[in-house]
Description:
Number of strands: 10
Helix content: 40-55%
Number of helices: 24
Distance between the termini: 51 Å
Largest sheet: 6 strands, parallel
Radius of gyration: 25 Å
Strand content: 5-15%
Amino acid sequence: MSQKIPHEEIVESKLNDTQMRENLMNAMHTLQKNRFNVIEMRFTDWEGLRNKAKQAKNNALMSLKERLLEFEKNATKNGLKVHWASTDEEACEIIYEIMCEKNISTILKGKSMASEEIGLNHYLERKGFKATETDLGELILQLNNESPVHIVVPAIHRNRNEVGKIFQEKLGATLSSNEPEELNSIARKHLRAEFEGLKLGLSGVNFAVSKEGAFWLIENEGNGRMCTTAPDIHIALCGIEKVMENFEDAATMVSLLTPSATGQFIPTYNNIITAPRKNGDLDGPKEVHIILFDHHRSDMLAHKDYHEALRCIRCGACMNFCPVYDQIGGHAYQTIYPGPIGEVISPNLFGIDKTGDILSFCSLCGRCSEVCPVKIPLAELIRKLRCDKVGQGENPPLGYENLEKNTFEAFAFRQFGKLATNGFQWRFSLSKLHYLNFFVHNLKHSLPVIKKWNKFKELPQLKKDLYKEVQEIQGVVYE
Length: 479
């Protein structure tokens, strides 16, 4: 991972980026409304579908070894070439070796968060090869040398005027307006030239089906279908947790994914790939490779606390509803997977020592857990990771041993814990809490532990006995 900016600095810079915040809030509110409308109008038992999906995903994960071996057997029988990668480096090496073997120096990519996770573009660039993004959002980011801010809509922080400026500067485009139709036309013309003579295309995988040896791709742009049918060779990157048992289970997931992600009832394109081109077929690749990669997913599966996060279907709903994400954006997280799901899987995939700072990007409001289509208890998992980070967890994730522990902070919270669990001491402290105002408001920049908290928050002005005030509130029973 690239060198990180201290998270206090990047958060402050994003909070001061008024254009980005306006773009994000407008987009997030639209996605929230779309999701609500499609569930209300199109589904009769949304909760039942969620329960069915949760159970199907759990069944697949609990029999993952069997599912993977079954997929390999049936996919190989269908003519697919199955590769296994334990690490991100191994996954990149497999793609590099195929390109070397076929004497190909350029690859066109459909949208794939998996390729972002393994750092494929940078890896190939170091080898002197070129990877070009064809998804419109990913193309905008690649032209502007940015990373995705969202796992579904990667350039959602940019409005059409900003996109038009990028196209003018990077593609030499002449614009008569910044209407979406014209911007799409410019991107289409640029990419059509790239697709001419294409030899190798790459995609991600939304779901793989073990009983059929097939994999399912969904998209709203035609670029993904171009990457998987136009070239002679197609490579698909698939995290091992994406393998489902049968088409019915995969269809259940797709039924939840698009309404949760963008508020659509169904995606524009469904591509189910079962084999390379056969005799008599007019198009399609002559070779199809699928890389099943682990990258610490097995460790997550074995973890009694965090295995539930592997149910994630990458819909991004948790981000769309997160009150922190829509204020600071995805780049503030400085990891491939931002938002609530990123706070859970990033420490497990990349190490809590490298990504643990993002665990503070959560108010524990629980909205992410409420909207997750496969019912991942995200807020609870974030709370558990916070415990792991400060040394209170029983089974901490990857990278814990490299964390620097704040002994004074640990001591302060131990004392607070003793105070909060002693009735007499707690009531006495509440009665004298108003005296704390003097220290907080006058020594805010020097008090240990609380100074960082107080940089962005303020205590209310307490002028009386808080314990008595709480007792006097109508309807409150304070025992």
